[in-house]
Amino acid sequence: MTSSTRGRRPARTSNGAGRQNFAPPGAQRPEPVDYAIEIPAAITIHDLADMMGLNPIEVIKEFMRNGFMYTINEVVEHETAALVADSLGFDVLPLAEPDKQAGSLVISPDGEDPDLLEARPPVVTILGHVDHGKTTLLDSLRNSDVVSGEAGGITQHIGAYQIDFDGSPISFLDTPGHEAFTAMRARGAQVTDIAILVIAADDGIMPQTIEAIDHVKAAGVPIVVAINKIDRLDADTERVKRQLAEQDLLIEEWGGDVIAVPISALRGDGISDLLENVMVVAEIGELKANPQRSARGVVVEARIDKQRGTIATVLVQTGTLSVGDNIVLGEVRGRVKAMFTDRGRRIKSAGPSQPVEILGVSGLPQAGDVLETTPDDKTARQIVEERQRLREIKFGSGPTLEDVYTRIESGEVKTLNLIVKTDVQGTVDAVRNALERLNNEQTKVTLIHAASGSITESDILLAVASKAIVIAFNSRIEPGARSLASQEGVDIRFYSIIYNLVDDVERALTGLLDPVYRDVLEGRATVRAIFSLGRRAKAAGFYVNDGRITRDSKIHVLRSGQELHVGPIQSLKHFRDDVREVATGFEGGVTLEGFHDYEEDDVLEAYRTVQES
Ligand code: GDP
């Protein structure tokens, strides 16, 4: 039995219907312990006993009383373990549902017992326009950390670091900018608690500042503004404050709730004031985590070292990560062999908000991958396989304008999130006004980001992270953004007449949009070999890197990013057999109608035409 009720219950009062309990009256019972536990999908008896703070023998006996025979190293499923833990007087937190949206199995933080939560340091990201001083500020903060008492200071960049500010630790992500910030969110990881928005006082708010503001707002992360370069003669802090107000960021001295601190990152002026305000925002946010549970974290960066293998920087978000823990990071797994702080100091365990470098991972995880601990390597392997499967399902499955109505009707979403890119600044407001006029009591159009310029990868990542549709008005798309959009299934609509744009959105909101046909990217493969089939005809031997190639796919042949051919498949083989599909990680052979000029390393993209309804 799983239960969401917290706190201690008498050990014997909860025999639910259908549950057997063979304990003889008056049998010796271990003392119940006063907290809820979180049992993973599978766990060994040994680990379960550990989790409950009981002798494994007692736990094995309790299994026997409930009619189960197990030895100490046997793995039991959540349901069975929960049943026994329950009869030992523990509250068992419900097993978290796999988070299919993020394509990963994520343990819901909602499952935490409030009694076990403790204050944790804030995790801060620094954003702003290029050259406004983000890197200088990160360096200055890193070097200002003289109170920490650890010799050597921070010499290496591992992607994140922690400083000690008057006895309060603060963690910083070392990769500044909103692209990295949103890339992590697009992968399902929300790492940042507070964003410091750096604005150079001599330059004022610039396009990337606005982009950063929109990205941070979309994430619902509080902003502390650092008005930088106040040492410069041409610094104009008042202008920055006015410009902030225009972006709906009203500072405190003008009656708003946005904290703005004048600083000079170069000289170190105002840095303590900035950090003090970061701590104030952290306190308001009541940042908490349970250090007693198994660890969950996020990969900040990872690299392969010739001698030591994969070195991954991980930010622990909740729980405690220890040397020896079995872990999964996205689609790779491992066992923590050693852990180091940002100062290169070897440690045995790391708690919430702490960045650490870990050794012992088998592959190369990606920034934004979620780290979780598993009871054993077998479970880790199962989770990795499941994630690979879910990723394939996820392939090309973002929201489309056609299914907006269904999503709103079913209560899945309340608003239509849009990212609008236009040719010139003047049209941004025209499109914004026209779209906002469509808002009524039932439906709401939210412009997550509206700006002039071409559609960039950063826009696509924001669309993924915010489940938004991209509207292009006389705007072009950058090549990298186009392939990212196909891969992530982001719907992009191109318009050159405002009326058509608004009409489509309106019809989408009312469920009247005509069905359209759309090509959805199904898979991507690389040509590894070319085979001659006669005088001219050739077949391409390929390896599927992502998704799948199916017999009915339309194939786009790309060489160095240039499209050479689009057309149907003539034959699809796996070894000598004709097959219906070839999946990720497998090799196959293909012939195309009307194309034979393959070269090694050509990319084959497989598209399927789907009807949106
Ligand atoms: P980023 O692109 O936002 O990371 O900006 P950088 O940190 O690289 O800074 C861009 C330039 O501004 C560098 O030449 C810095 O030395 C300079 N800079 C940064 N902060 C200050 C400051 O507080 N005062 C002055 N005068 N220059 C600064």
Q: Which distinct ligands sit in these coordinates? A: guanosine-5'-diphosphate
| Rg of Cα set | 27 Å
What distance separates the N and C termini?
42 Å
Strand order of the largest sheet: 7-8-6-9-10-11
Uncertain spans, ≥5 residues at pLDDT below 50? 1-34, 98-110, 146-152
Number of helices: 14
Structural class: alpha+beta
What is the topological layout?
Elements: E1 36-37, E2 42-44, H1 45-52, H2 56-65, E3 75-77, H3 78-87, E4 91-92, E5 118-119, E6 123-128, H4 134-144, E7 160-165, E8 168-173, H5 178-186, E9 194-200, H6 207-219, E10 223-228, H7 237-246, E11 259-262, H8 271-285, E12 288-289, E13 296-305, E14 309-318, E15 321-322, E16 326-329, E17 332-340, E18 346-347, E19 349-350, E20 355-361, E21 370-374, H9 377-394, H10 404-409, E22 415-422, H11 425-436, E23 444-452, H12 457-466, E24 469-473, H13 479-488, E25 492-495, H14 498-509, E26 516-532, E27 538-550, E28 554-559, E29 562-574, E30 577-578, E31 581-583, E32 587-592, E33 603-612
Parallel strand pairs: 1-4, 6-8, 6-9, 9-10, 10-11, 22-23, 22-24, 24-25
Antiparallel strand pairs: 2-3, 5-12, 7-8, 13-14, 13-21, 14-20, 15-19, 16-17, 16-21, 17-18, 17-20, 26-27, 26-33, 27-31, 27-32, 28-29, 28-33, 29-30, 29-32
Helix pairs in contact: 1-2, 5-6, 5-12, 11-14, 12-13
The structure holds guanosine-5'-diphosphate.
The site of guanosine-5'-diphosphate has 16 residues, from α4.
